[in-house]
Design a protein that fits this description.
By secondary structure, the protein is mainly alpha-helical. The protein contains 7 helices and no strands. The chain has one domain. The radius of gyration is 17 Å and the shape is globular. The mean pLDDT is 95.
Length: 194
Amino acid sequence: MKLRGILENTPLLVAIIIINVAGTLIGFYYYWDQLVSSSPVYWIFIPDCPLYTMLAAAVLAVYVSTRRSSDIVNFITAIGLAKYGTWTVFVVLAFTTFYFSVDSSFYSVLVLLHVAMAAEFILPLMLIRQLKPRFITVALIWFFANDFADYFLGTHPPIPASDITQIAIFTFLLTPVFIIVAYAAARFLNNSNT
């Protein structure tokens, strides 16, 4: 089956939507204590991964039911899936002593789920019909604002405090990397019939 054939496979898309909804609920549960102890002003910046699995579920649900989608929302969703899926995998594996001492089974499953989350970024990109250069500017502003909130306002998830500078640098670097990757991948998908 061609890659674009996935978009015509409604049962598969519905299964992916359900998985994303489940992941979103688990993610909000994970962030619950942080959310309720923070000002509502910061809520949009706290649950990074569940925000993008929720957006992925919404984007796919709208597409399945109407065959419509928003190019800019698809672009932002794809970057968020790739960036935060990758971030979680690398940070958890780089700091196993911190995470696995809490619950090794949970964090082992978490890593696998976030590998899948990162790989899923291709789906919203395939829905983009007209890629515009201004999407890059919007994405840079949004994701750098999120990075700023994480490391200057303290909205990041639990991370080892002693390594926060390294993690912050890694996070800020991922923003332009995944914007470039998403833009290039969307252009490739737009110009091919894969």
